[in-house]
Amino acid sequence: MSESLNILLAELHAYREANWSPAALKVNIDQRATLVKEAARRRFVQPGDRVAPFSLVDVEGGSLTLSDLTASGPAVLVFFRFAGCPACNIALPYYNRRLAPRLAALGVPLVGVSPQRPEKLVDIKRHHALDFTIATDVGGALGRRFDILYEFDEPSKQAAAASGASPGDITGADAWELPQPAAIVIDRDHIVRFADVSPDWLKRSEAPDVIGAVEAVLAGASKAA
Questions:
Q1: Residue 199 CA to chain centroid, in angstroms?
Q2: pLDDT at residue 1, as a whole number
Q3: Most buried residue among 11, 34, 190, 202 by CB atoms closer than 10 A?
Q4: CATH class of 5-224
Q5: Which SS3 state, helix, strand or coil, does residue 112 take?
Q6: Could you give the C-alpha distances from 154 to 26, 167, 169, 215, in angstroms and in order?
Q7: What is the pTM for the complete model shown?
Q8: Domain locations in the chain as residue ranges
């Protein structure tokens, strides 16, 4: 059986159940459960949506525009929370192993996106020697446009503050907002062709699903040519 990201994330949760205090575990579980319960899924970015121009900041310098990313065909955006997020430190290396090589072979850019400031966000790329681009969504502008941002609940804010974190450290802004994990495929006409948003950050898009969506876009483009 091929490697599953969601099995890896389930193992992270099992570790926490065995090692975290009941109070800390409750904060984490309750926040994720609330996000799932209150998710306005019809407001999330959807297949068929047209994406207006945007610009992201590459953590290694320069900017990335929608037109640049889709100049030769589709592009894939993977939204994640921040560099210090344990689940993200499982998800991004998984995508580096299971998603990035196939997309590179197809000539399709893959970009990991977070609102965290570039000087902080670059840590996750360097730590895992990621082969794909990591970029900052300044102020969460694109995440807000896609309606995938969430605000920390009060217990989560208190837990983060108790650890010495501030909104600026985590989000790069004054608000306690982060994106819900999402994988989005945008074609060269700037139309969303695949969108998978998970309010629970311990459940995320599997690589084969994203690859299948990209291959379908490329197959359709080939037939239309």
A1: 11
A2: 55
A3: 202
A4: alpha beta
A5: strand
A6: 13, 13, 17, 42
A7: 0.94
A8: 5-224
